[in-house]
């Protein structure tokens, strides 16, 4: 049994693609972070070391007056501050994680092992580099952002953009993959409803889909031809069988003297004619014209066809304002089949009369028409077989004079009208048939 939570092909394809691309993005981010970590640390250390070396060189070769100018220029143009390093200065280490350790090691390798890298000096935050100029100790204060690693916010923005592109791409790709299959599914549903005119595109660029469409179109054309042949054959059979039956009936009326024999022969001929009608009803083409049908009027009109109250009696309770979406002629045949089935097989054991109750229920956009008798019912394990063509129940419910197509015709006709047909045993005895059709207001 298929799961009620089964995903459609579109969503299954979308989820798989999004999962694949999302995993690829995650792997790409991790790879990029690993590859850019060391180059970024080296680059940041090189920039800071260059600033320190330039500052050291400028101060070393400048006289006292020019040193003040150099320091002022560094402060104004490069946002650098130079100050002497005192023994009592308190500082916090800069190296607290892998990235800052890499920068510290690179700076010491370029500026000397005595170089100090701090994140704050005397509670003043920033990037502080402690170095020597001809034996004098200095602090160089720079902006911490010069060595800042990419922040989580930056990663979030870029990864978010990548994921959004992944979702959009997955939707587009899943749509492209699903479109021809959706068209195929729609065309198959139209064929199921008897419409063979829809053709799929045979000029698709994808070879496999093009071949499937070509094969489907050939199948549709063959089915249309078979359907035409079937209609012609059925019309011919109906005509060819009814003509000798009509002659037999005429000869029976004129030649048979015994009234009992004449009555039995006429009954057999009528039964053959009714069986032909059943075959024609079951093989009727699938096209129906759905219109608003006044259900109470149609039910009472069908009841009027059963005039022999010694065999069947009806009790109908249907609100006068009940309309359903159906083919009026087809629904009339459905009701006639149900009533005839009740007349033959649903007679109440105590009275030998079929007491048929007809009730109406409403459930949202649906109208349910319940037709039940008070007969012996039917074994529950065999209820589903009653709509199988040519199946007949056991002798407890069968007079075996039909073709075994009555309820199969009902089920097929209701499906053609977009409804559903349900059979069950009534709690207090008898068979209950429930027709569900869409309501019109």
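^ structure tokens above, recovered residues below v
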């Amino acid at each position: 049994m298929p799961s009620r939570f089964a995903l459609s092909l579109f969503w299954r394809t979308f989820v798989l693609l999004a999962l694949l691309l999302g995993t690829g993005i995650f792997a790409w981010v991790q790879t990029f972070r690993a590859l850019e970590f060391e180059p970024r640390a080296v680059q940041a250390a090189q920039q800071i070391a260059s600033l320190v070396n330039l500052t050291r060189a400028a101060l070393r070769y400048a006289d006292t007056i020019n040193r003040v100018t150099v320091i002022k220029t560094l402060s104004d143009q490069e946002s650098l501050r130079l100050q002497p390093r005192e023994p009592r200065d308190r500082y916090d280490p800069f190296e607290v994680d892998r990235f800052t350790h890499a920068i510290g090691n690179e700076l010491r390798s370029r500026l000397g092992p005595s170089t100090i890298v701090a994140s704050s000096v005397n509670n003043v935050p920033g990037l502080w580099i402690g170095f020597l100029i001809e034996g004098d100790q200095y602090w160089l204060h720079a902006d911490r952002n010069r060595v800042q690693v990419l922040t989580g916010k930056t990663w979030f923005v870029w990864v978010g953009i990548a994921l959004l592109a992944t979702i959009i791409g997955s939707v587009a790709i899943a749509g492209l993959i699903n479109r021809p299959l959706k068209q195929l599914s729609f065309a198959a549903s139209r064929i199921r409803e008897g419409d063979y005119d829809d053709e799929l595109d045979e000029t698709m660029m994808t070879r496999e889909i093009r071949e499937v469409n070509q094969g489907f179109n050939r199948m549709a054309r063959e089915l249309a031809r078979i359907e035409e042949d079937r209609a012609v054959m059925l019309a011919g059979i109906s005509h060819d069988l009814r003509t000798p039956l009509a002659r037999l009936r005429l000869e029976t009326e004129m030649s048979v003297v015994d009234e009992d024999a004449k009555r039995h022969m006429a009954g057999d001929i009528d039964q053959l004619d009714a069986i032909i009608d059943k075959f024609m009803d079951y093989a009727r083409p699938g096209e129906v014209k759905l219109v608003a049908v006044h259900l109470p009027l149609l039910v009472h009109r069908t009841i009027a066809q059963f005039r022999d109250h010694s065999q069947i009696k009806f009790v109908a309770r249907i609100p006068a304002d009940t309309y359903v979406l159906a083919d009026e002629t087809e629904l009339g045949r459905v009701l006639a089949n149900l009533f005839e089935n009740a007349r033959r097989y649903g007679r109440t054991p105590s009275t030998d009369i079929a007491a048929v109750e007809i009730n109406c229920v409403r459930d949202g956009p649906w109208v349910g028409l319940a037709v039940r008798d008070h007969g012996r019912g039917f074994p529950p394990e065999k209820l589903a077989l009653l709509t199988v063509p040519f199946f007949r129940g056991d002798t407890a419910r069968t007079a075996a004079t039909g073709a075994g197509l009555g309820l199969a015709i009902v089920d097929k006709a209701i499906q053609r009208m977009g409804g559903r047909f349900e059979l069950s045993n009534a709690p207090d005895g008898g068979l209950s048939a429930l027709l569900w059709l869409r309501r019109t207001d």
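The chain has three domains: 9-153, 213-287, 291-438.
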